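Protocol step 4 of 5: obtain the predicted structure for the target chain.
Materials: sequence only (see below). No template structures provided, no constraints applied. The aim of this step is simply to have a reference model before the mutagenesis design in step 5. Sequence pasted as it appears in the construct record:
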Amino acid sequence: MRGGAPWVADLEAALGEVLIGQKELIHGLLLGLLTGGHVLLEGVPGLAKSLAVATLAKATHGSFARLQFTPDLLPSDLIGTEIYNAKEASFTTRKGPIFANFVLTDEINRAPAKVQSALLEAMQERQVSIGGVTFPLPDPFLVLATQNPLEHEGTYALPEAQVDRFALKLIVDYPSKDEELAVLARMARTAPLPIVRQVVTLEEIMRARAVIDQIALDPKLAEYIVAMVQATRDPAKAGLKDLVGRVHYGASPRATIWLALASRANAFLEGRGFVTPADIKRVAPLVMRHRVVPTYEADAEGLSSDKLVARLLETIPVP
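Step 4 output (structure tokens):
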């Protein structure tokens, strides 16, 4: 049996029936689903980012909403608004698309600051305010946002506070030759795609999250996680003298939390009741790549966030 529940292999298979290749994308989506962590997907257009999110929602019996972010978007387009009923002389609340289990925000970096702020409240507090009244969001609630790394015209840089709210950042890359041939064979036709199989309920997902909370994390591995995160803030103290002046700012305590949660979820997917160093190393790039920001000097030297994280993994001693 793949994973810590019988439905894990079925869900992977259901996603694989629509998404060809993209194993890292599927793995990252499963980690987000099992931990309740929001996911940022970055990749050029046409790599099935939106299709992946829609497929995940359909396979899990969850409600799904898609919102195309544009520069003229308003917060009310996201969270909803109050509508005045002249006949009854009263206001009624019309809820926005944010009230769904899976919310796909396409091209998130095209939305202005006010929309980003409204989304930030929803992601962090799992509730929104409409007309002074607070409304809880459904459970589970997952924001899966896409952004295009190539286009900058008409885009707004995501605030660091919002980027930090994303538990994971997934890089969606081009398919291999064989994978693209398979895409051609399956997609180059006028017939609609096959209906996605529903393989898991929301209740089963919530039960799996409760199991993940019980997966053992050895105190020495907890210290390893903390040491890795703190090394991003003070590379010299961690013995990474070559990274001094190469990190603009390091990871926040949220990185520590999500490293532990994602490591537990990875152990769950592997069918284990305890975390190993391999789990931590497996999820570290996904959790830290958007939280470790290189300096201009590092950029000039070709040191990306992923390379900085890889350097950490090579240097911090494993217990």
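Step 4 remarks: Residues 15 and 55 are 6 Å apart (CA to CA). The domain at 7-193 is CATH 3.40.50.300 (Rossmann fold).
Proceed to step 5.
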